[in-house]
Amino acid sequence: MISSREFAYDVLVNAIKHRSYINLQLKGQNHPDMPFINALIYGVMQHSLQLQHMFHPYATKKIDVEVDVICMMSGYQKHYMRQIPDYAIKAEALKLCDKYVPYAKKFVNAMLERIFESSLVVANGEDDIQGLSLETSFQPWILKMWQSHYGTQFTHQFATFSNTPSELFGFVHYDLKDKLQDYGEPIDEWAFKADKSILQHPDFLSKKVFIADIHAQKVGFNTPIKANDRILDACGAPGGKSLMMAMKVKDQADIICADIAPHRLALVEQTLKRANINSVTTQVLDATKAHEFYPPLSFDGILVDAPCSGLGVLRRKPEIKMFITPQDIDELVKTQAAILNSCAMCVKPQGWIVYSTCTLNKKENEKQIESFLSRHDDFICEHIMPFDSFSSGGDGFFMATLRKIK
Ligand SMILES: C[S@@+](CC[C@H](N)C(=O)[O-])C[C@H]1O[C@@H](n2cnc3c(N)ncnc32)[C@H](O)[C@@H]1O
Q1: Ligand 1 atom, smallest distance to 358 CA
Q2: pTM of model > 0.90
Q3: Domain limits at 17?
């Protein structure tokens, strides 16, 4: 069996080289030391800029990803997992060098000295973007964008919040609403705050109880779906919000959970089958072309839980903040607008579109809605839902309910 550090090294190198999600890499993998491995992998991703700052300034040429990962892992063990002695960190780092990058052993040895004598950078007040960037490991452009959209204090708070562990929330099948308190601390008629024991609960294992962030639930349960409606969940996989909508109408509707990615729809089908839900079917669909696939006015309501930059869910996916670029956001804004345009043609008069994202930036949220309304005078915005992550512990989400008035 490979060592826990080698396991973490492998996942990190792959994730960084291929810009892929850690949770996808970890899926189906097991190791007796998984808590340590998870802490190391997510910790390195969460604190990458702070860790790189300990040794990058001393490198005279570009550092290969493999070498970067070995040094960052060492820095994380030294500064965030304080119980590990320096000699053990060093021995493990050099073992990885011997196996994967023997040419870099001397370099890593020298960088470890720098890393061991470093201390963590802390921002010098709320206006110190460069310091905050190192303290929280957010690229400066993200912090500057937040600062201009939401102000300095919020930027500081949200960047710090994004590096804290996420909390666990769940919701129940409509048959189990009376038993909510059996699963955790009730929050509303569907939702509860859970601890990890829920993951072993028979009702969770048999898909009668589900895990979802509290703000994702607010989106799913606040769509204006009514019994017997025909609904398109246009970007629906892995099916969380289709499931919530089905629960809200006691499985009495015709909900099409569509997605561009067939492999993600396979997950939806598994969940629906195990949860015995009959009101949801799946469909492979590029939602920018929904109007070519469905006749005009086909739906009472459409949920566009759009592909987005994910800046609201960094506690769970810290790798996003390492990879995302301003150009990615510009591309996403175009795709979101194309999906909204196409879906607008498929909604009946008096029908609705709920547009939601799990990101925090006005280009993908408020401005996207303003721009949609400027192109579609047959729609009004009925409601924009504010989400307060600091008091609820939920992810950063955005939700706007649009109504077709003609
Ligand atoms: C935020 S996720 C949806 C989460 C889902 N609504 C839920 O609650 O479980 C966005 C989804 O949009 C899908 N997607 C991206 N581009 C798309 C497109 N052009 N048409 C349809 N789906 C798309 C992605 O595959 C991804 O599954």
Answers
A1: 1
A2: yes
A3: 4-117
